[in-house]
Amino acid sequence: MPQIETDTLLGDLKKFRVAKSDLTQCFVCMHPSPHSMRVQRLACACKACAKVTTTAVCPWRARVMTCQQTLLVTIEEAYAHATPARSARKPVLTHAMKTVVMDWAAQGLKPKRIWNALVQRFDLNDTSTSTLVTVQRFVHHHVAERLGGSDLRDTVRRKVQETFFTGQEEETAAFTFTRRTNVNGNAVVGNGSNADPFVIGVSAKKLLRRADRDPASFILHVDATYKLTQIGYPVIVVGISDRARRFHLLAVFIVSQQQREQRTEDLRLLMWPRWYSRKRAPWLPPVLHL
Questions:
Q1: Stated pTM of the model
Q2: Could you say which of 63, 130, 137, 153 is the most buried, measured as most Cβ atoms within 10 Å of its Cβ?
């Protein structure tokens, strides 16, 4: 059966838990090429059955097999529940809700706003609405695992180091740079506190080459915006405007504070091309040597 019908069928079952989940060779579909399927073994988690079977466990078992290529699902049930009575079950996110949530999360909407939008879109009430915590966990898992987004310090530091400037990048490839580096030459991004602010720059060779012109022919712009990050960090947009009033982006800086010390570091970060051009970036335009 399709995935949508599976969610409807599982929603009609008594409360259960996934006892085991693993991948194995698929035999759900008839596709000739070898591929995998997800096998989930379900066990009863109904409180009504637990009250009846005080010295044992409910014998009900089920197995859900999902083809990873065609998304076809087969459900098998074994034995009966200890009692047909049902305990109260908390509302869950349906397949349609998850699809909408993933789309909104990819657009950068916050979990609170997604939760409110779900109530309006699916006409939910207090008894059929999933909790905000459920939506927050789903959004965080989707953004961190599927979209590659994370606000963990070690993860951010690792991603910055992976994209740190080496001089071997393509013209249009984005790279990160910082004013502070450690003894090994790795980027020091800070932890976001007042004593150790988070400051990082993002640019590309093609963007920086736009400044290769007479300094008297353009105006340097340094503007801040809050619309480019989900957690409220201000983004400093640095660019130039020529005599035709066209704006040319040079770089963006993500910072954690709006204090004078951080603005000073932002301006010092603009000096980064001058220092690096002496080291490994002779291609940088001389007008960036502020």
A1: 0.52
A2: 130
